[in-house]
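S., here's the first fold you wanted:
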Amino acid sequence: MRLLVPLVVLLAGALVFTTGACGTGASDFSPQIFTGTYFYVSFAGDDNQVPAVGTSLWGTLTSDDQGTVGSGTVSRNDNSVINGPGPLSPFTHLTGPNGRTIWRIANVDSYEGGVGLDGRAAVLATRITSLSPQVFLLTKQQGAFNNASLSGIYHLAAFFYNSTSTMDGSIWGTVDFDGVNMATLNVTTNTGGVVAAQAPSVTAYNVDPNGRLTYTLSTAPLEGGVLEGGEMAILGGQTTNGGIQILVVLIKAGAGLGEGTFTGSYNAIGLFASNAGPPAWRSVTTLATADGAGIFNILAGRQNEDGVLSANVPVAGPYTVAPNGALTLTPGQALMGAVSTSGQYVAAAGGTAANDNLEMWIFVR
């Protein structure tokens, strides 16, 4: 069995990440970029087991200005079995002034990604062969919140595994939050290559004063956090036994946006699965650029496909951004998602055509 770190060991209270090289030397160490308390969600998949194991992870972590994560919580869903919440064991990270970050386990570079330069969000993925494909998305916990912190239409992009049906899927569409406690979901799904619009559903949500978010996506209870200002929210779960393992990104709809909103250099993570047979899960950690005029590039980075590490193939393709931020991204097959009003956060999922494979990208700058 390939190790799902930290999925297996964080609850044991014994894991310590040790600091290693990131950049060209000690002068590149700039941990202040990644400081404070963060919500995180994660998805991992291991189809070297029979049956394949999908895992989702959610919780919080707190990082000081010296590169140490000293506390936090962790819960996980392993093929529909819930473990936690439990304490997060301390670990260290090394983050450079450009936001690129590496987390190390037993002196081995194990996770790689990037922190947005304002420190409010981060993305990482596995980068060694002893780990299964896995991605993390983090948002900073700061500010005061209530249910009105989520109000109006949000674009949704998600990637999931149903361990009961052993089918992977992606989701794209919208959620309309009423600012009180109810939300209306309108989405399309790709489940194993079968694309279908889903019937609208109205379910409850709640935002705690610290930004912790709980929301029932159709019938799946999820947990995550809201970014200060409400521009983005993240969710993982499901948080009850049975059902799915899922990672969800919500980006608030804007106005007057366009291709120029999506511009610059981004930290990027990707998730992939085949639409038939074994999932053949793949995670990617890399950089991406967008020119503000309809062309994006996903650069050469690292991918982990079922525990085999290699360089991902660079991809360039077109994109469009509607005035409300709705994004069509085409790195081969078409994906749907959104760009935030600030242009800092981008997420897209698909493929959106019948028989497409499952794919999701998340960009943070």
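And the second, which I think is the more interesting of the pair:
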Amino acid sequence: MHRFPPQSGGDDSCPHATEHTSEYCNGYAKGYTYEWNTLYQGQQTPPTGPSLDTLYNKGLALIHLGNYTGAIEYFDRALSVVPNDKDALYYKGEALIALGNYTGAIVYFDRVLTIDPKDVAALDDKGLAVNKLGNYTGAILYYDKALAVDPKHENSLYNKGLILHTLGNDTGALTYLDKAMAITPKDEDALYEKGVFLDKLGNHTGAIEYFDKALAINPHDVDALNKQQNTLQP
């Protein structure tokens, strides 16, 4: 499972959520600050109607609830207030990915990258969208760009590992999964995937060990249970 990437930040940032954790901005509170001219593009007074934060936070809440179409409506309204709001652009891209509109998502990630070419989350998510369109080499390019900015970006490491697995390079895939797990050792998805890769490489004992580790975190992981039982069978 590829995952939407988090974007690290301090008290004044709203971390990009992950598909894995669904943690959106500490209860949907938007923390980014902007210069007045950036927000309102030279206007002397802010626009009337719902505030940017209200529209943006409603969009985030709807993403959290799985209502991606509704979320897009609110991000579009936010963008009608501030056309270059990087976060609304980014999350609209995420909502489009969730709806399977990968080409449309790339348009919005590109707009984010025009504003900030080193936005790790947008680079990683563009890699995800490119991958979904079947361009594996292109996806690796964007994961590598994300890792050039942040070598410890866990989701880029994880997602690159999955791409390498898809391309048949399980040894390379394991290298990147191990790097991801060095950052988050109890990552259930990475533990499960490492078990899958080890099983395909013929290391069944090692595979069972990692399925067991995944199940220790989530005993109800059906995929890990099935893989564990299949690997145990002679």
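Why I say that: The domain at 1-150 is CATH 1.25.40.10 (Serine Threonine Protein Phosphatase 5, Tetratricopeptide repeat). Confidence is low (pLDDT under 50) at residues 1-48.

Talk tomorrow,
H.
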